[in-house]
Design brief:
single chain; alpha/beta; Rossmann fold; six-stranded mixed β-sheet; three-stranded mixed β-sheet; 6 helices; about 30% helix; globular
């Protein structure tokens, strides 16, 4: 019987490795120039909006980019043009839910300095016509994901398993050959970078 990876056998060691990888990748992402960030984001946006999962979805659940993440606002614009429902997350007391927005002006600064829907927006539940596009800090080629440490997406998806597809978007520099993971971690169905689709 094959041995499990060392970080699965030793969760504490795995958490330390996750934190080190998280800090290294965030520092590397921060080094991207504005033009590099724009060019790479544009390539990712194009791959997302021509993907069959995006084209067939009626609802797009999507994070608002912050802190050097790939730009998601152009994806929102493409979804609105295509007549899709766009919902973005808001966190309240460590609980994340998604709310419909119909334009960028319906966002305001919220938790952790991230833009969130204004307070009067309608909550939206995922269903079989939903594509959820999620963030992450580090991924591997098997689509395992290290987030920011809050566990919001793992918790949300364990309680709302209905999205037809889940997709993550990240820069290629955020993808490693192998990273620590735990049994409860939820992998996206699709991972898109500026260079690859996994």
């Amino acid at each position: 019987m094959a041995l499990l990876p060392i970080w699965v056998r030793n969760m504490e060691n795995g958490r330390r490795i996750k934190e080190r990888l998280r800090q290294e990748v965030l520092a590397e992402r921060k080094q991207l120039s504005e033009s590099e960030w724009q060019n790479r984001s544009r390539l990712i946006t194009h791959q997302v909006i021509v993907h069959p999962a995006f084209l067939s979805a009626r609802k797009i659940f999507l994070f608002v980019n912050a802190k050097g993440e790939t730009d998601t606002r152009q994806i929102m614009e493409a979804a609105w043009i295509a007549g899709k429902i766009v919902a973005v997350p808001r966190v309240n007391r460590k609980v994340m839910n998604f709310f419909r927005i119909d334009n960028i002006n319906q966002l305001e600064p919220g938790s952790f300095g991230i833009y969130e829907p204004v307070r009067d927006r309608e909550a939206v539940e995922p269903d079989a016509d939903t594509l959820m596009i999620m963030p992450g800090v580090v991924f591997d080629i098997e689509r395992h994901r290290i987030g920011y440490g809050g566990g919001y997406y793992d918790k949300y998806l364990s309680e709302h398993p209905q999205p037809a597809k889940t997709m993550a978007v990240a820069f290629a520099l955020q993808v490693k050959n192998e990273i620590p993971f735990e049994p409860h971690d939820i992998r996206p169905d699709i991972l898109i970078t500026e260079g690859n689709l996994l």
